[in-house]
Amino acid sequence: MSGTSIRRAVLAAAIATSLVAATPALGTTLEGGGVDDPAIRAVVKIKGKERPFVRSIAISRVTYTCPDGSTFRAGFTVEFLKINDNGRFSFSGEADQGDASLKIAGKVKDNLKFVSGSFTEIRDAEGGGSCTSGKQRWEAKR
């Protein structure tokens, strides 16, 4: 599925969710950052009363290392992740309009007061090859 198709599906889900919701959903924002790299910032928004879901995870200030040894900082946002009965969520697929591959997983704990997880993102490098974030752990709390 291309990045455009993913964005269209996410937009359709957002519209459907807003049309179906008869009562306002509770919202919780958790903030934190990297466990291994303290420069990383993480903002997690959780919505829903009966069946909470991750509305969005915004990860920023991630260091990516390229084949030539150069580094740069960037980030990503993931939206609409289902939280299972054990409090876990995950996403694996294309990101950044198909120019990146992302794997992210996490767990919500303490009645939506704490969330932790890990991610790995690989981005296409200019001139060939791939730049990677490596596996990064993160956490956020209310």
What features would you describe in this structure?
- The chain has one domain.
- The termini are far apart.
- The protein has 142 residues and is mainly beta.
- The longest helix is centred in the first third of the chain and has 18 residues.
- Strand 3 and strand 4 form a beta hairpin.
- The radius of gyration is 16 Å and the shape is elongated.
- It has one helix and nine strands.
Describe this structure in a few short sentences.
With 142 residues, the protein is mainly beta. It has one helix spanning 3-20; strands spanning 27-34, 41-47, 53-65, 71-82, 88-95, 100-109, 114-124, 130-132, 136-141.
Blueprint of the fold:
Blueprint: H1 3-20, E1 27-34, E2 41-47, E3 53-65, E4 71-82, E5 88-95, E6 100-109, E7 114-124, E8 130-132, E9 136-141
Antiparallel strand pairs: 1-2, 1-9, 2-3, 3-4, 5-6, 6-7, 7-8, 7-9
Quaternary organization: single chain
Q: Main beta sheet: strand number and arrangement?
A: 9 strands, antiparallel
Q: Estimate the global geometry from the Cα principal axes.
A: elongated
**Helix segment count?**
1
What average pLDDT do the residues reach? 83
Estimated structural class? mainly beta
**How much is the radius of gyration in Å?**
16 Å
* Secondary structure tally: strands: 9
* Helix coverage percent: 10-25%
Note the beta-strand portion. over 45%
Low-confidence spans: 9-25
Q: How many domains would you count in the coordinates? A: 1
SSE pattern, N- to C-terminal: HEEEEEEEEE
- Ends apart, CA distance between termini: 34 Å
